[in-house]
Amino acid sequence: KQLAVTGVQALHPYQPGKPIEELERELGISNILKLASNENPLGASPQAQAALTAALKTLELYPDGSGYQLKQAIAEKFGLHSNQITLGNGSNDVLELIARAFLDNQRAAVISEHAFAVYQIVTQAVGAELQIAKANPADHQTMPYGHNLANLAAKITDKTRVVFIANPNNPTGTWLSTTALHSFLQRAPSDVIVVLDEAYTEYVQEVEFPNALTWLEEFPNLIVTRTFSKIYGLAGLRVGYAVSNPVIADLLNRVRQPFNVNSLALAAAQAALADDAFLERSVDTNAAGLVQWRAACAENGWEYIPTVGNFITVDMQRPAAPLYDALLREGVIVRPIGGYGLPQHLRITIGTTAQNTRCIEALKKVLAA
Ligand code: PMP
After folding, report:
1. Low-confidence residues of the chain, pLDDT below 50?
2. Which residues carry this modification: N6-(pyridoxal phosphate)lysine (predicted)?
């Protein structure tokens, strides 16, 4: 007999990379450099590590199921009320809560081409329809491959209940300006939830970049999601959050697992949030790395998509998969993004100066081979 499954057979699972130890064994090399998952090259905040050690003493206890202290700390830091915050097991978990609360097989979600893969997975997993808007074309003057807000708006129908927008977007690094996004929100139907995924927002140094948390009162249908996986360096612990109107937070809380964020993650995230020095170092390291990468691209004639995140997506102008393999043999892991409709691009996480140099040299070598 066949297993009776719902629409899940049509899903394309998120493709994580192989464990580094496994790759090192397979390739017979050591000291692999992973610049493939937009992780923080400085590690985790020392304060978070200390909090983690302290939290190890109470592993027998369930975590605080409401995440009271972490929500309080987030609320204080950003001038919010804690009833606006929903914690998740990574922001992916929050994205899933949104899909479960607002989508079903009668409804649809709008996303852009080249958008973060998880929007598609959480939408299709609840049987909802995906409405995919064309992104900007490759020859767009300012933001090639970026989300196109007019196209996103045009895709909204009576069925649409959620629009997922990443700002900046992964895997492109492209972004939407304050004015453009604000006018999109003004025009979006009030019964459509607009999710602004700000996983990389702390890295952005552009002037014309929104602080969407200040828009929550104006737009009761807005949800902003953020994560501790990137600038806070806690990807392994899985903690992220949504900020919204309290009515939406209440709905998300109804579909949330009671202990979705574990006690170690709660403790470390709270400490990381307070570690401004680490945050500043991370921002500075990334800014310097972007300068280094842009210079290397200019010097070598490599085209790249404009980025304000902690990664740069380079147009290899030939199939990128063999280059990915060749870089791997040089001991550098980057991310091929054919699955995102960009088969000639490689997405490379910005590392420390030394890591960037190693990757740039490896790229030169494999391109010359
Ligand atoms: N949104 C975007 C745009 C991302 O790139 C990522 C991480 N790849 C996430 C959300 C999810 O991050 P996490 O679940 O680790 O919080």
Report:
1. none
2. 230
